[in-house]
Amino acid sequence: MSIWSVLAAIAVLAVLIVVHETGHFMAARLQGIYANRFSIGFGPTLWKYQGPQTEYAVRAFPLGGYVGFPDDDPDSDIPPNDPNLLRNRPILDRAIVISAGVIANLIFAYLILVVQFGLVGIPTGFDFQPGVVVQQIISDNSPAAQSGIKAGDIILSVDGQELGASKEASSILTKEIQNHPNKPIAFTIKRNDQVISLPITPRLEEDGKGHIGVGLNPNGTIVRQRAKNIVEAFSTSAQEFQRITVLTVQGFGQLISNFGETASQVSGPVKIVQVGAEIAGKDLTALFQFAAIISINLAIINILPLPALDGGQLAFLLIEGLRGKPLPTEVQQNVMQTGLVLLLGLGIFLIVRDTANLLPASWVQNLFQ
């Protein structure tokens, strides 16, 4: 996993956050509603610009963003009865502003798929070549690095067993390495136009298996088929958009109905960046579909009727419509603050857990000794 692939994954998340917040911002401005802050990220300000009506800022931690309104800003000189304050607008106007971030993420996901299918192509298979590619060397003191293996090498055989042109080649190689801890194995490697032999002794790790410290990829290229015309690009994208959305909704349904068994599958931003970096390292164009999937997930999460999310604010509007008047401000603030604390707590827990899973087990143990 290179620094460039990590940065590419972070960039994808940053773009999706910008899209979401831009949805809120544009829905307000197009209706003439005041919006005095547009911020990407949280924490200390890295850059800001004061426009005629709005302060634009980029902050240190790119894990979210927000659009600020002057309704409750004590420094605002706008009269509290101004009809262009968000709180003074009809319920429908406010609902449009609140839901616009979700809508923007869904539209953006669909357009990403259109671009992928129209310009890059639809993955239809894999053209396998003999051997397995060494994508990366995990550390300089790994058995692979010490034996002389380099990133980009193609492992053609292990202990005399040919690794043919098939999807099973990677699993065959991995199994041979894991089954021979502390035992030398003969590797036949193709480097550029040369074929060389290298003995490597897999290191016994805490899981009881042998490891040589490399990242492996199948040898070959993804076969893609581009849309024949713009109509096919839009129609195929619609089908893929529907498939991803349905699977995502079903996944959230299973999480709610069977929380005990599926809670461990919930991932935070660290895990998302890790997955994105792995995808970028293997095939940069696959980030299109990764971005579409995350954008759809972001939309569905935000529409859930939970405090501090867009869905929670829409729930307040629904109650207001049914009651004929909003809930007391103190009640809304208490609910939102409690929800925000819970969400921040969950976010911190997921970040710590996913970060710990990225570290070697011995490092994690040392942290708590």
Range of strand content: 15-25%
- Uncertain runs are 354-369
Secondary-structure element sequence? HEEHEHEEHEEEEEHHHHHHH
Distance between the termini: 29 Å
What can be said about this structure in brief?
The protein has 369 residues and is an alpha+beta fold. The protein is built from 11 helices and 10 strands. It has helices at residues 3-30, 91-120, 143-147, 169-178, 230-257, 259-262, 269-282, 287-303, 310-323, 329-358, 361-367, and strands at 37-50, 55-68, 122-137, 154-158, 161-162, 185-191, 194-200, 203-204, 210-211, 214-225.
Give an overview in words.
This protein has two domains: 96-121 and 230-369, no CATH class; 125-224, PDZ domain (Pdz3 Domain). It has eleven helices and ten strands. It has helices at 3-30, 91-120, 143-147, 169-178, 230-257, 259-262, 269-282, 287-303, 310-323, 329-358, 361-367; strands at residues 37-50, 55-68, 122-137, 154-158, 161-162, 185-191, 194-200, 203-204, 210-211, 214-225. The longest helix is centred in the N-terminal third of the chain and has 30 residues, at 91-120. It is elongated, with a radius of gyration of 26 Å. The relative contact order is 0.12. Mean pLDDT is 81; it is low at 354-369.
